[in-house]
# Entry
Amino acid sequence: MKRSKVYIIAEIGSNYNRNLDTAKQYITECSLRGADAIKFQSWKSEDIKNTDLATLKKYELPDEWHQELQECCKSHNVDFMSTPFSIAKARLLRSLGVPAIKIASGDLTYYQLLQEVASYNLPVFLSTGMSDFVEIEKALEPFGKYRKNVTLMHCVSANPPELNEANILAIQTMTEKFQLPVG
# Structure
C-alpha cells in the first residue's frame, strides 16, 4: 500500500455498468487525478439478502475480472482494492494479494466476515455508517492483536449528505475513543 499524508481511495464500486473497458477507463482517469487506490465491490448477488436479484446480478464484478483490473491498477501505479460481501469474496481478494480490504458499514455486524478478514493481517478500512460506539467496539473484537491494522471510516448514510449532517467532529471523537486512524 502506498503511504502518503492523505491516502486517496477512488470509489468505483459497481458504477461501470459491468463493462470491463469502462472499469479500466475509470482506473486510468482516477490514477491521472491522484488516486492512491481504486476500490471496487465484490459480491455474488445470491449472497446478498435482497429480493431484486436481477438488478444486483447486473452489477456483479465477475471473479475473472479481479486479476485483470488489479493488473490495470498496477500498470497505473495505484493499489487495487475491493469490498467483499462474503467470506468467499474475501478469500478471492486475499488470493490476489490485495494490499488492504474495505468492509462496508452494512457488514459491521457480519462477525464471521470480520474474523476472516482479521486473520489476513492486512490493513482494513472499516466503515461505521449508522453504528454506535458499542457496535464499533464489538466489530473491532475479531481483530484482537491486529486491531492496529484497522482504519475506521466515518460515514454518513445520506449520499451526498447535507453539510449539517456530515458531523465531521465525529472523526476526532472516534480517533480519541478508539485510538485508531479515522478517515
